[in-house]
């Protein structure tokens, strides 16, 4: 099957059917809930055309204040452990923490969750400081077409991302990329993506769909069509049966989840966890997974699990705040 032709011809259902079978055969029927844990709300680059951070940069006078409290970050890790969510990666604007600081945070997270973490903390050549606390390195490519990527992410040169991923591979880390759909790419651009995955032996791709932010040039642009998103994921799954695929869906697009799972997603992400947990939106995510005929690892609704866990004196005030934040949204019947 020429998947790019199929996508262009909108043979989406055929692709989804094929991709679904490939996924079940190679990955089984479990779907993970993934959470990107942010380190800061500031970005040294701050000029990607679609990004919320690019609208904030001029407002933040003291970048050090945009760093999150480390205990809050670690408390979030404990919450994820309790409810069975994976930490998709540690993420955050460029230049907010040093490599050594990120390493220490990753070590603490590994102690809490028992699993090494992926990083998505910017382009760096300083990867040899990391060890078993890190599972993989993510390059935030965002756009597969090199010309479009240069235009939309002027301060994230593709070559630097490639160099970083090659170094990551040499050091024995897994390699991932993030990609946003709806930024003006075409189905033909999938060729660039496939080449990238093949050449760099990428282990994991996280797809997002455009979330139009006020103040950016995409402010008034539509999000990509659900079937285009599903078709793109299915095409990627058919081409790369063993690839780990994560798909991002914001709260306003929960109906995408079922089709994305059928198209080959292994995990789903990009939810405002504390706002959705236990609410009809969290329940909806679980329903989407159930109606796709898959099993969900972790929970979006089980408050017992949310409230039961280990205690850490320095983290407890933050854990409590997060738990309370979730519980206040839940309707008692
Ligand atoms: S580098 Fe990342 S955080 Fe910074 S503006 Fe670009 S997409 Fe946003």
UniProtKB/TrEMBL annotation:
Q: List the SMART domains hit by this protein, alphabetically.
A: Elp3 (SM00729)
Q: Where is the Radical SAM core domain?
A: 29-252
The entry's keywords:
4Fe-4S, Iron, Iron-sulfur, Metal-binding, S-adenosyl-L-methionine
In terms of Pfam families, this protein maps to: Radical_SAM
Which InterPro entries does UniProt cross-reference here? Aldolase_TIM (IPR013785), Biotin_synth/BioAB (IPR002684), Elp3/MiaA/NifB-like_rSAM (IPR006638), rSAM (IPR007197), rSAM_sf (IPR058240)
Output the superkingdom of the source species.
Answer: Archaea
Instruction: Give the residue range of the signal peptide.
Output: none
Q: PANTHER family, per this entry? A: BIOTIN SYNTHASE (PTHR22976), BIOTIN SYNTHASE, MITOCHONDRIAL (PTHR22976:SF2)
What name does UniProt use for this protein? Radical SAM protein
Organism, scientific name:
Methanothermobacter wolfeii
Q: What is the lineage of its organism?
A: Archaea, Methanobacteriati, Methanobacteriota, Methanomada group, Methanobacteria
